[in-house]
């Protein structure tokens, strides 16, 4: 460890490590995606861990460029900000609404001041690697370091000589919910609960987090604080604390309120280190304590940090890339790192977790996952899990089916046991079908089908997932009934889901169902406007919506019929019937011309999900595959870099990175639910994926460029298991062959 | 019960009952002292019970004359107000600072509205008797009734047909502390905690109350509410609840915050009754539940009400009065009722209670009492307890000595385990000494003496009870070091305490101590100003404070040297050396002349403690005793009536009533710590006090007027046990004789 500390002090730690990099974790730069609204953060976290310990720098100072309370804001950390107000415990990465990011832990020195407008600090020497983050607080001369286990955090502060303080702020956080409860357990321990929720301004999506916090040194003094309600008149004169933060110096029993905290005061020697451990649970305080004790066992910071790093190396190491630049490796492994953050563990070490949309405490056999941003992740993230982490994907699918069992509906955007109903569609269907189609079938398939059938066929009024199902079932499309009801976007999602459901029904021998759902899936044709050559909203009377501008809707501008995008971002989103769409457009030529125009005219949005598979659609047409290869390479180079703004936009819980990871490996699952990939030239000379033999019957899958030294960006030939193949291959064939070889055009 | 309900509906219940009155409880009018700043309330309570269920009508409407948040305000109920916002559970009666009065329970009908500015109601048909209160809410046509056990409340609502709601508001209350925590236990039960404290603006005197609340009907729906923190900008646009009360309709786990509540919605039939039971504890939620279950056993409202009434009849019935008017009986029994509210039980049914100024949970063998407003109650309340309820007084003394054991100091103004340090002096000493002198000695006498000696002799800096003890010990008085430091008031209290302590030391054989303390107790002479004939503040250089106005300080006007009173209210307050004070003043004649002048010129304040024994001082001087008899009769008639303003001012937790009760019985303990009484003509023909034979060796004490039919207001002769006696008698002689007879001058 000495070497690391020394390097950190020399402020060359990061660069130094990079040069000596040997392990996958060394290629991860957690600062990528931490600005440009990427909403990633450089905090310490384990793969798919419940806990993350994240530097919180989005409140308390006008010096910050972005303030969580002054605008839309959904991440605890922003790279270009400068005022640190503590570590937040348990956070979301790559989401678009404010949530979690509370249990704020801050060190200070000198007189106790519990107002975050005052106690925050500027910083320097910021550095991060998987499972580790460090920062030097210039105002206090405090070195702060964070690491994590799956369900607990561990923070180490190195203090100067004198009065030092540790503050736990339960009043602030990214979440829009307020209210917390806490009690002192001993001189070195507090426990409590904080209310979280209201994700994406859904007022009922509320849930509690329970915590236990321990410091490893007995403080000189400790207590609470609470922001007092303002008073008027003589009461205001007499109560000197009214409207202010009141320090509780002699009260150590239960405390509760909107804005409370705990303080611990120490006399420290120069360089003295104090560690603060935080265990959390979404079930109970007792489980939070058990999580902390079972996962940390009182181990020291360095040990916990090494364990976290090992977890990352094990997981990232399932894919080995060779060739390519150092920067490409960094983009790749950081992408894989981002793809391994959500969904994350929900159950405690004893297996308990909160029932989906219910008040029961249940016990899970395998891992119970949470944070399913499925409108995003059904497109590629779960396909990546299925291929590289199949045991994990199976637990995710089981979690989804169990949510149906507990709540009566598959998830749409599940968050710690709450259905937030964010975005649209029925995205669990393609995820589960895709998984099943790829041979991962060890879940309750009948119940899964029952769940899918329910949402696909229940009347709209009682249909949580498809509220406009009456129109959809009756008309074959969803008409525009309110100006900004996103009706076309809804229907496009239903088509895709129903196509996957049809295939699933077919495979299960339910021919009638299969026929019905397959027919439904082609209803997209209703929306095609000959006049504009795009999809176009339909009014309740069956006529097209007018006036119509197919390019309206960029940059989150509201637009009738479409959600977060223009008609151009949606018109090619019929991945299950690309050829059919081409026929509708007048044939391949027109299709290719218009799709190319989307890119040429800047109508393509690399940061929003409906169009991210567009570059791969060219490869459905013989002779046009070069466009895929060209565009993917260009998009990777332009939007995925090693800089903090090195993501095209919101990471969407791994979906942006999922695109990059697949694309850099040379294949992409462009049609969710269909077990096929479209191929492009890999960014690396050789990619080795360690397969799980239990599921795939073999140890590895190798993708390589046969002539890596040849210059050229285009594919001449592809061989699967040594035999020539086309630009689209099935998952089964890929696994079966175990070897995919690209020959470049020199 | 039919008869009662019928009478209530005829709105003649109270009058009807009064005419048929046979029991002591029938003579209690809980509305006496509920205006004119008496700060009593008509709520349901058991004798010395922890629980009281009180109509809360001091917030939410401009129609109210007094609002808790708009001015100094210390009572949950004001007779002249008109807007009811629920029943507060656990309240203080007759105090001068806001505290407790939370856990507000309100019934409404129609659409749910949780804003107390809206949901309150005007009312009619208000009625109360010991252990019972009822009100009819005109806005909702709801009849609300309340009763109580010692540690639990029971409220019954009679609803009209339709949508009905029950609200538990944890955000408001009389206390200046905020913050609460709650969780749903079942469809019909919630449990939680509320932070209380900051009594008399002492920011650290904070303590929790735990509760369990049950409704006896399963609601159609239930949930929480919380006032949301205000937001700005787009957040404010997106969060429709910001700054408002948000209803939680789908969240039923832990909730916490400054301003939270629970709602229960019912469909009710016309006349349907729903009962709401509330158990409380100052130890834990589990104990709150046990208190509720052990004391109510699920019994119905009428049964609990009858039990409460029986408790009152048993306690009030320890004194039987005959003769006198119905109004005098009402004043007397209401006074006794008020004297039996505080101190009240602190321990739970399992014996557990919170350590004094500490975090331990301890177990009490006897009853542990709390709410010791000792600067008030040491003057007569504890003497009343000692005589009529000796077993209770002994538990109070044991509680006080245990507080020393737990905390290192005897109490001054103890409130639920916190020393609020309100008012001044060392009032535990006269209370304990007085009790011991009257033969109640079954407590840790050595520890009690140790405790008294500690506060009497510890240096000021480390002396919690006598912060100015350095001056006092060095100089024999306390000089004025700050303009409004109440220095003379402080010292006068120390003199009285030290006199009692001297007698105690003497009795315990500690002659040196006795001498020291007795000498100290005469230090009051320093303050006597020949020039003004009153006590006068002394400056640190030994000179008197100038300019000086002995009448300054009435009506709570701040005045140098004196606390809540003028020099005239304090100058005769040397009850342990009345004769010595008279000598200082130039003899009996001057003393009597000046004391009479205090009354004649309106300088006497019947509502503040330091001068309330003044009327009895005349009886120290032969031939002047008629003045006592005349003044006591006049003061009773003028200040103690059956009207809501029938107390002279703040009840001071039973001290005003203690004065009236003793005075109406014909004797008064004018020197706390000295086991003697001064006699005056009783208001009744015959008073029979049931004595506790265990302590007094006999069953009763009778005070009677030998010639009741004779007209006349003055005493001709007094006989104790048949033998003529003077105007001052000892406690021992009174008990020993068992019979005190007054002969009126016809």
Automatic annotation (TrEMBL), chains A, B:
Q: Which positions carry the signal peptide feature in this UniProt record?
A: 1-20
Q: List, for all copies, the residue spans of the domain called Glycosyl hydrolase family 92 N-terminal.
A: 27-281
Q: What class of enzyme is it?
A: hydrolase
- InterPro entries, per database record: 6-hairpin_glycosidase_sf (IPR008928), GH-type_carb-bd (IPR014718), GH92_a_mannosidase_put (IPR005887), GH92_N (IPR041371), Glyco_hydro_92 (IPR012939), PNGase (IPR050883)
- Transmembrane stretches, by residue range? none
**Key word ATP-binding present in the record?**
no
SUPFAM superfamilies for the chain:
Six-hairpin glycosidases (SSF48208)
Give one GO molecular function term: hydrolase activity, acting on glycosyl bonds
Q: Keywords of this protein's UniProt record, alphabetized? A: Calcium, Glycosidase, Hydrolase, Signal
Q: Which cofactor does it need?
A: Ca(2+)
Write down the Pfam families for this protein, in alphabetical order: Glyco_hydro_92, Glyco_hydro_92N
What EC number(s) does its UniProt record assign? 3.2.1.-
Give the Glycosyl hydrolase family domain ranges.
Answer: 287-743
- How would you summarize the oligomeric state and partners of this protein? Monomer.
Protein name according to UniProt? GH92 family glycosyl hydrolase
Q: Which organism is it from?
A: Bacteroides gallinaceum
């Amino acid at each position: 460890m000495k070497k690391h500390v020394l390097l950190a002090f020399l402020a060359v730690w990061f660069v130094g490590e990079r040069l000596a990099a040997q392990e996958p974790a060394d290629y991860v730069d957690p600062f990528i995606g931490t600005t440009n609204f990427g909403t990633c953060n450089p905090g310490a976290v384990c793969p798919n861990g419940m806990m993350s310990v994240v530097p919180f720098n989005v409140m308390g100072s006008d010096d910050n460029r972005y303030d969580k309370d002054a605008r839309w804001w959904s991440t605890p950390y922003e790279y270009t900000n400068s005022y640190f107000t503590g570590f937040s415990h348990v956070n979301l990465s790559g989401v678009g609404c404010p949530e979690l990011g509370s249990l704020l832990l801050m060190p200070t020195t000198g007189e106790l001041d519990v107002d975050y407008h005052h106690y925050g600090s500027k910083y320097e020497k910021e550095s991060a690697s998987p499972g580790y983050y460090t920062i030097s607080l210039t105002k206090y001369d405090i070195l702060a370091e964070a690491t994590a286990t799956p369900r607990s955090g561990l923070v180490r502060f190195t203090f100067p000589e004198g009065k030092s303080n540790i503050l736990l702020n339960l009043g602030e956080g990214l979440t829009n919910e307020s209210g917390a409860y806490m009690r002192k357990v001993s001189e070195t321990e507090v426990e409590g609960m904080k209310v979280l929720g209201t994700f994406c301004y859904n007022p009922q999506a509320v849930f509690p987090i329970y915590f236990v916090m321990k410091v490893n040194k007995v403080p000189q003094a400790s207590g609470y604080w609470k922001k007092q309600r303002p008073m008027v008149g003589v009461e205001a004169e007499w109560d000197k604390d009214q409207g202010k933060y009141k320090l509780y110096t002699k009260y150590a029993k239960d405390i509760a309120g909107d804005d409370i905290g705990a303080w611990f005061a120490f006399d420290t020697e120069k360089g003295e280190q104090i560690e603060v451990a935080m265990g959390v649970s979404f079930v109970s305080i007792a489980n939070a304590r058990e999580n902390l004790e079972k996962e940390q066992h009182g181990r020291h910071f360095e040990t916990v940090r090494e364990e976290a790093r090992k977890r990352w190396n094990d997981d990232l190491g399932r894919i080995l890339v060779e060739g390519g630049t150092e920067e490409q490796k960094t983009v790749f492994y950081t992408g894989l790192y981002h793809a391994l953050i959500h969904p994350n563990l929900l159950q405690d070490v004893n297996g308990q977790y909160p029932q989906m949309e219910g008040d029961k405490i249940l016990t899970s056999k395998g891992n119970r996952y949470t944070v399913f941003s499925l409108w995003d992740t059904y497109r590629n993230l779960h396909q990546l899990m299925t291929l590289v982490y199949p045991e994990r994907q199976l637990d995710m699918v089981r979690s989804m089916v169990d949510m149906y069992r507990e709540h009566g509906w598959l998830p749409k955007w599940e968050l710690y046991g709450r259905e937030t109903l964010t975005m649209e569609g029925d995205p669990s269907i393609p995820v589960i079908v895709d998984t099943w189609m790829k041979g991962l079938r060890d879940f309750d398939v009948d119940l899964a089908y029952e769940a899918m059938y329910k949402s696909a066929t229940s009347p709209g009024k009682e249909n949580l997932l498809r509220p406009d199902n009456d129109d959809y079932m009756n008309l074959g499309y969803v008409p525009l009934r309110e100006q900004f009801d996103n009706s076309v976007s809804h229907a496009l999602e239903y088509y895709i889901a129903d196509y996957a459901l049809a295939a699933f029904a077919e495979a299960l021998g339910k021919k009638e169902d299969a026929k019905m759902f397959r027919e439904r899936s082609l209803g997209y044709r209703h929306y095609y406007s000959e006049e504009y050559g795009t999809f176009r909203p339909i009014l309740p009377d069956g006529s097209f919506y007018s006036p119509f501008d197919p390019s309206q809707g960029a940059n989150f501008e509201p637009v009738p019929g479409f959600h977060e995008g223009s008609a151009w971002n949606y018109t090619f989103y019929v991945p299950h019937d690309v050829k059919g769409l081409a026929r509708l457009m007048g044939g391949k030529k027109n299709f290719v011309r218009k799709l190319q125009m989307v890119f040429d005219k800047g109508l393509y949005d690399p940061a929003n999900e409906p169009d991210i598979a567009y570059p791969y659609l060219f490869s459905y047409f013989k002779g046009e595959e070069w466009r895929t290869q060209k565009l993917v390479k260009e998009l990777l180079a332009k939007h995925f870099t090693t800089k903090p703004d090195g993501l095209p936009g919101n990471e969407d819980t791994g979906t942006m990175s999922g695109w990059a990871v697949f694309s850099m490996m040379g294949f992409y699952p462009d049609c969710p639910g269909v077990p096929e990939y479209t191929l492009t030239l890999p960014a690396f000379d050789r990619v080795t994926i360690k397969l799980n033999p239990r599921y795939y019957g073999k140890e590895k899958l190798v993708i390589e460029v046969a002539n890596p030294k040849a210059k050229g960006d285009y594919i001449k030939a592809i061989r699967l298991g040594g035999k020539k193949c086309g630009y689209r291959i099935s998952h089964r064939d890929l696994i079966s062959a175990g070897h995919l070889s690209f020959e470049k055009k020199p």
